[in-house]
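User: I've been going back and forth on whether these two constructs are worth ordering. Before I decide, could you fold them both?

Assistant: Sure. I'll take them in the order you sent them. The first construct and its structure tokens:
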Amino acid sequence: MLIMKIITSKNNRASKQNMIRVVAVIVFNLDNYIRSCKLLPDGRTLIVGGEANAICIWDLGQQPRIKAELTSAAPACYALAISPDSKVCFSCCSDGNIAVWDLHNHAIVRQFTGHTDGASCIDISQTPIINMDPSINNVLFSFIIIIQGRQLQLHDFSSQIFSLGYCPTGDWLAVGMESSNVEVMHCSKLEKYQLHLHDSCVLSLKFAYCGKWFVSTGKDNMLNAWRTPYGASIFQSREQSSVLSCDISSDDKYIVTGSGDKKATVYEVIY
């Protein structure tokens, strides 16, 4: 049984230039890591996946509870993505498959088999027909752009890909690397930026819905926010352990992170 409590921050510790503050910390009493968490646009539904075969759907009302569990044959879920209409959840599984879940019926409706090793992360465009999925295969470091189940492009890199994000404007892709770099590349032009603030591998990455900035998290305990596309630092925040996942609310006012010490932290972005 998964148990969670929400702690409202009294001190509201702020980060660089007081641009963000912690408004809540969610503590999970789990035996395993949280690898990914997604907050739905309704503001009260949180989907959590990690080193377990069940993905948990939480109702974050006054008395938080598990509404449902999505159970697969894979022993772990490495990453989650939600369709723009919030009706479908994509889960990257440790067996290399990508499961597609109906969030209303809590059932698998489709499964993609794309990798011999685990599928490490995924992102979806706002047009809901494109998804990007990298492998953690130690021989070929690449990610694939898929349209309607058909492979469109294959990009190769010299370092293992741990995270990626697709800018809602449709112009930019950002990739978080094992090498600690973030690479931002234009979708149709030969334009690329290499960013470096992390001291270790970049574990998660997410663009704001406005597309003007994005955040990345790392094994170095850091949450970094960058200006799109050239990577000027906007703010930074250090947590107590590795920050394994992150997400941004649809109004760009809140950031949620999942960490190795079994906590999810909610930040308020102060403009």
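The second construct, handled the same way:
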Amino acid sequence: QAPHCEHAFCNACITQWFSQQQTCPVDRSVVTVAHLRPVPRIMRNMLSKLQISCDNAVFGCTAVVRLDTLTAHLNDCEHNPKRPVTCEQGCG
């Protein structure tokens, strides 16, 4: 969260943004990584309860999971094209 304007961003998005420029993506006020603060706990709790469609929906997954369980679901999702497959022949 940017302390002066209080705009909030996910870590991955703001890190990518800061690789290009040191401003708030919303109002373009000057912000650096050192200025950023964690969002309030209530916001994290609210976000963790959001219902999110699986990233693999385009591959046929119909799961809708809470944001705080999305990563675990993606690792195990049977529709994940990058998921490691265990060989039935025992070769790996």
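Notes on the second construct follow. The mean pLDDT is 90. The beta strands are 51-53, 64-66.
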